[in-house]
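**Archive record**
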Amino acid sequence: MVLGVDLGTSATNVEGVAQQLALVRDSTRAAGATIEAIRATGGALRAPVWTDVLAAALETPIQVVDDNAGSGLGAAALGWRALGAGSLAELAPSRPARTVVPDPDAAQRMASARWRLAATVDRMAKQVVHDRREQLRQIQSGLLDGEDIIAVYDAVGAGTGFIGLTTRRVIIQDKSFLGKKVAITSIPYSKITSVSVVSNKSWGGEFFSTGTIAINVGTHTYEVEFRGAQKTHHAHNVILHYIS
């Protein structure tokens, strides 16, 4: 599903979606899978701009099926395969109503532009989410071999200066020491027993209506208050992922 795209969407917008699908196609092939045919379903494909651009980006004929249940069939096919219940071909959509062949010139143009998109996506993937650059640099200076930063968030309130999330640990700037001393505490995910959302509201409200999480390490609990529920949600889910 692509939100905000309809029959009146311009070719330029559609090209962006199609190029992303081409990158998915490339990743699928790189993983060793063989793509024998591409079938497409959905009401948007009634517009020629969609089918023409998709075919050019994928450099492959698109078999358009007059069936709007393609997404449901795809989900069923994945379950079918996980169960080892037979060939996925048995769940394929109905026979194609028409086949759209890619225009060679358009296909060449889109292929030549795809490397720039891939480079942009790769560069964005390497950008670390952070609130303050000096906090990010402090985390970067202490990284271990093979360790990557996921996010660095500024904390509000007393006690915690910031929290860094990496692929190996949680790093907290602890300002709760006497004498204005500050400590950088590293907590391996293996030492975290649980992560909680702290709220003074009833559970009738939203799960992440608060901006605070509690990280439990043995008998000690670190509370971190974030600048917004979205950051709270992200930090909670990252920690939960690595301790599960």
